[in-house]
Specification:
The protein has 5 helices and 2 strands; from the N terminus they run ααααβαβ. The protein has helices spanning 2-5, 10-13, 16-42, 46-71, 82-86; strands at 73-74, 106-107.
Length: 110
């Protein structure tokens, strides 16, 4: 459960592109750290194990994105973090979109 929370945490602090890019960075660091920590049990090299875990995580994210793209589901960049903005007042420098203006997903015309 903790692993699933890590990519979501930046959305409580940031909104829009900054939340997405921060989430990607935090997730990459967490994946590498998990892979490196596994070496305590396996005895493998820290760098190779960390990069292996990072590669698997990136592959899973890429596959998820590709499947979503193939079936026509996407979230517009203007709506990234809109669900989090709904529950708090707008701050200077943050997008003012609300969840009502941005659907959670949209179907692209074929």
């Amino acid at each position: 459960m903790i692993g699933a929370v890590i990519p979501v945490l930046p959305f409580f602090v940031f909104a829009g592109r900054s939340a997405v890019t921060t989430s990607m960075g935090v997730s990459a660091v967490a994946l590498f750290t998990l892979g490196a920590a596994i070496t305590l049990m396996t005895g493998r090299r820290v760098l190779s194990s960390g990069l292996r875990q990072l590669g698997f995580g990136l592959a899973a994210a890429g596959l998820t994105y590709a499947v979503g793209h193939l079936i026509g589901v996407g979230v517009t960049p203007e709506c990234w973090g809109a669900a989090m903005l709904r529950s708090r007042p707008a701050r200077a420098g943050h997008e003012s979109a609300t969840a009502g203006q941005c659907p959670a997903s949209r179907l692209r015309p074929g």
